[in-house]
Design brief:
The chain has 67 residues and is α+β, with helices and mostly antiparallel strands. The protein has one domain. Helices cover 25% and strands 31% of the residues. The protein has helices at residues 35-43, 47-54, and strands spanning 6-12, 17-22, 27-30, 61-64. A four-stranded antiparallel β-sheet has the order 1-2-3-4, with no helix packed on it. β2 (17-22) and β3 form a beta hairpin. 15% of the residues are buried.
């Protein structure tokens, strides 16, 4: 299901980083995200709900420059 909040995301298993681009244009990089957490996010029916519940306040993040 397309998300109304998240435009796209990319997981880099070698660095355990999850980059998320929101529909607002803001990009964030989440660090030390385990592969299973990224897979659960990818498989989630509602990306926004899953993000808010299991990623947003669970991993260190920093905002990146606009896309």
């Amino acid at each position: 299901m397309p998300s109304t909040v998240i435009r796209r995301f990319e997981y880099r298993p070698e660095t355990r980083e999850l980059e998320i681009l929101f529909v607002t244009g803001r990009r964030y990089l989440y660090s030390q995200v385990p592969p299973q957490a990224a897979e659960d996010f990818r498989a989630a029916f509602s990306k926004g709900v899953h993000f808010n519940r299991y990623i947003r306040d669970c991993y260190e993040c920093r905002e990146l420059n606009p896309a």
